[in-house]
Amino acid sequence: MTLQSDQHQTARDLIGAASRVVVLTGAGMSAESGVPTFRDAQTGLWERFSPEQLATEEAFRADPELVWSWYLWRARMVRACEPNAGHRALGVAQNRLAERCRSLQIVTQNVDDLHERGGAEVLAHVHGSLFEYRCADCGAPADFELGTAEPGSVGSEEDLERMMQVAPPACERCMHGVMRPGIVWFGEMLPPEDFNAAQTAVEKCDLALVVGTSGLVQPAASLPYLALESGAAVVEINPESTPLSEEATVTLRGTAAELLPGLLLESGGASS
Ligand code: OAD
């Protein structure tokens, strides 16, 4: 047996023994669905715009068309992606554990809806959602129809060029503000309800499964350490080393879609 397969067995045993599992996910969770991560894939279309440059209130005030269009383009790109085997395994495991009076709660930094489309309920979207909108001035929630793109063109350079001409619609309530995406931008507070729910879940869990996050953006990055301080085991799934790797109870080197189905759905895991 190799060291990694020992670690896999330990992780399965920990999941099998846990009554309350919290899964903390980041961009790596959706990478195999075709959604680029923030720090690994600064290539192609993402080379042109740094999320850190566009994901601020100042950027939106300075160039609302650019920032609004960038988020619409991302939302349409995500709509064209499908949940991967990791998302689906989490959906199945969540249901199986619920049938056994155990729980699996998902806290995600991802602004996509791939957990939900993979059959799972999400406890907290701590960085907001690409599919919620509100007025940038009065804060009123707003509906917005994303529209359709030419088949095969979603997420392409041409789609992005077309989107670049789109101005955010005016708020129908206050009439002077414009719509913005319901995303947490750099320098903004996390939605308190979501972050409090995340903290409470983590404090009460027996096991935190940390999937596909670099652990570089606070305060979300503090959640695995809160789990450790509260006495929970922490299992990390990531193909690369992160600051958490040394601290985690078990670190599994591999991807979400490769590892989650085996960990959660084969003997041990959420089946036991
Ligand atoms: P990052 O892009 O910082 O990190 C992605 C992590 O996923 C890296 O550690 C990769 O090694 C790992 N990874 C890549 N492919 C993977 C796969 N197939 N399976 C598992 N892991 C994989 O993304 P986040 O940590 O989510 O904030 O970034 C945190 C926040 O920074 C984002 O929510 C966003 C960003 O700026 C806001 O938008 C506020």
Write the SSE topology.
Layout: H1 3-17, E1 20-25, H2 28-31, H3 45-48, H4 51-54, H5 57-62, H6 64-79, H7 85-99, E2 103-108, H8 114-117, E3 124-125, E4 128-135, E5 141-142, H9 157-163, E6 179-183, H10 192-204, E7 207-211, H11 223-229, E8 233-237, E9 250-252, H12 256-265
Parallel strand pairs: 1-2, 1-7, 2-3, 7-8, 8-9
Antiparallel strand pairs: 4-5, 4-6
Helix pairs in contact: 7-12, 10-11
The chain binds 2'-O-acetyl adenosine-5-diphosphoribose.
2'-O-acetyl adenosine-5-diphosphoribose is lined by residues 26-28, 31-32, 37-40, 51, 55, 109, 127, 184, 211-214, 216-217, 237-240, 242, 255-256.
Structure, explained:
With 272 residues, the protein is α/β, with parallel strands linked by helices. It is 39% helix and 15% strand. The protein contains 12 helices and 9 strands. The protein has helices spanning 3-17, 28-31, 45-48, 51-54, 57-62, 64-79, 85-99, 114-117, 157-163, 192-204, 223-229, 256-265; strands at 20-25, 103-108, 124-125, 128-135, 141-142, 179-183, 207-211, 233-237, 250-252. It is elongated and about 55 Å long. 2'-O-acetyl adenosine-5-diphosphoribose binds at residues 26-28, 31-32, 37-40, 51, 55, 109, 127, 184, 211-214, 216-217, 237-240, 242, 255-256.
